[in-house]
Design goal:
By secondary structure, this protein is α/β, with parallel strands linked by helices. The protein is built from twelve helices and 18 strands. The relative contact order is 0.18.
Length: 398
């Protein structure tokens, strides 16, 4: 007899990790995912600090390291593509602006899916439409499947979580915009592309990043500090791409190549850069996990790591504690100080790294150049990064 029946909404990163540990803790787990199959697309993400320890406890570190992009570091370049500041992976600490574990989101998601699929029931091409928590059970309605009841529901369905909207209808504006919009997509790799990520700034708060992958493509990030893309979620993919053609047409460097590649990219994705900040991550028998409850934003570099650590802690506390409510309180007590630290972004971020004028870009580039010339690259990078290991992971009996 399982301790609890658990429904997890979201089959990306947080959901499968939670499913893995919940099943190990003796619970019956169902994961519902709106996509028709396990997701295979996505940009580069990394695993840092305590999240790496969770991966080790899952027995997946070696497999994950075998699938990394082997990115060598981050180089800042001028409009001619010439690097003026380089931040390599720190060989000692394994961290810098580039982690020693950089992996495509689709690759990592599939690793976690494969590790959990024999222990967890997956339902694809469906989603939650209603939640009725009567304190003993949670009745859940689905877009396609029949209504079911569970002991616990966990929302791991991202920054714009449907679970959060259904279970926390009175929560006022949990998403806090950072004033930036970013698109992600892959383009064919060319001879000019290297194993280094490259970052270029153009006036108007525009940031352009190209990153290597391990499947023969180059990953592109086009970001802008502007209110013009507001309402993008109401447009189709073609309409969103037109926004980027209009806003980046004169950006320079290799942007024309990127925009041409974007038109043919079938993995294009656009999002507002924001954080999710809530007073509580649980209500009754429903709890939120990862970006759904405490998205730190992509610029923190910690979204994936928080999701992995949060999934482990939530499962462990549900195994350890006597009731869901007690477990949710313990989960939040342990995770919230860590989350709040990660969500404290560098002063002025992200605007400070995406200047509006050539003069601002010159100042930004000069500071970075001085950092590299004075030989304090590693120190600068480490102090600029979040403290990814500032949580003491309990050792649960699961």
């Amino acid at each position: 007899m399982p301790k609890y029946t658990v429904l997890v909404s979201g089959g990306g990163i947080a959901g499968p990790v939670a499913g893995f540990w919940l099943a190990r803790a003796g619970m019956k787990v169902t994961i519902v995912e709106r996509a028709p199959e396990p997701r295979s697309t996505g940009q580069g993400i990394d695993i840092r600090g305590a999240a790496l320890e969770v991966v080790k406890r899952m027995g997946l570190e070696e497999l994950i390291r075998s699938r990394t992009t082997n990115e060598k570091g981050l180089a800042f370049v001028d409009k001619n593509g010439k690097a003026f500041a380089e931040f390599p992976v720190d060989d000692v600490h394994g961290q810098s602006f580039t982690s020693d574990i950089e992996i495509l989101r689709g690759e990592l998601s599939n690793i976690f899916f494969d590790a959990s699929k024999d222990k967890v029931e997956y339902i694809f091409d469906d989603s939650i439409t209603s939640i009725d928590d009567d304190s003993d059970k949670v009745k859940v309605g689905f877009a396609k499947g029949a209504e079911q009841s569970f002991d616990i529901v966990i929302g791991a369905d991202g920054m714009r979580s449907k679970t959060r909207r259904l279970a926390f209808p009175d929560e006022e504006a949990p998403m806090k915009s950072l004033g930036q919009y970013t698109s992600f997509f892959a383009i064919p790799r060319t001879a000019s592309d290297t194993d280094w990520a490259r970052w270029y700034n153009a006036p108007g708060g525009r940031g352009i990043i190209m990153r290597p992958d391990n499947v023969g493509s180059t990953r592109v990030y086009l970001s802008i500090m502007s209110t013009e893309p507001a309402g993008y979620e109401n447009l189709d993919i073609a309409g969103q791409k037109q926004i980027y053609h209009r806003l980046f047409a004169d950006a320079g460097w290799e942007v024309p190549r990127m925009l041409a590649g974007m038109d043919h990219a079938d993995d294009f994705y656009m999002q507002e850069i924001a954080q999710v900040i809530m007073k509580s991550w649980s209500k009754g028998r429903v709890a939120l996990l990862g970006d759904a409850g405490y998205c730190p934003s992509p610029i923190s570099g910690m979204g994936t790591s928080l999701a992995i650590v949060g999934a482990y802690v939530l499962a462990g506390e549900l195994q350890r504690c006597g009731s869901p409510e007690e477990a949710f309180q313990a989960y939040e007590a342990l995770m919230r100080p860590f989350v709040e630290q990660v969500q404290k972004l560098p002063p002025g971020a992200p605007g400070i790294a995406n200047p509006q004028t050539w003069w601002g870009i010159w100042i930004f580039n000069t500071v970075l150049s001085l950092v590299t010339k004075t030989g304090i690259v590693g120190l600068f990078a480490r102090f600029s990064l979040p403290h990814a290991d500032k949580i003491e992971l309990p050792l649960y009996d699961m």
